[in-house]
Amino acid sequence: MNAAPKKYTMGFRVWINEEHGHFMGLGRVRLLEHIKNTGSISSGAKAMKMSYRQAWQMVEDMNNRSEQPLVKKVLGGKGGGGAVVTEAGENAIKLFYKLENEVMKLSEKLSRQITL
Predict the structure, then answer these.
(1) Each residue's pLDDT tens digit, 19-61
(2) Which residues 6+ apart lie within 8 Å of 69 measured at CB?
(3) Domain 25-111 class in CATH
(4) What is d(CA 69, CA 88) in angstroms, rounded to the nearest whole number?
(5) Which DSSP state fits 68?
(6) CA 5, CA 23: separation in Å to the nearest integer?
């Protein structure tokens, strides 16, 4: 009795690297999206179940590695402070998902070729 052939797939995690290390991966993209949706690094951190300090360090790291800031702090006032994802940040999010989509297409294509 022959069993059905096993099906194998490939998997990848996409990271965009800068010459001195990691720049952006899915976690950082999701943090940017939460900041965009909430207008706050603190709220973005809560949505990601991480500390404000960790989120702020990630934002600082991305801003330092990018040619233009991805997130800008908005100073307080009547309504309090906050943060905004800049146009460069929006573009980085779009680029990440575009690259991730291309990698996934390639992964699916190559997975069809795996026979062991």
Answers:
(1) 988 899 999 999 999 999 999 999 999 999 999 999 999 999 9
(2) 63, 86, 88, 89
(3) mainly alpha
(4) 7
(5) S
(6) 40
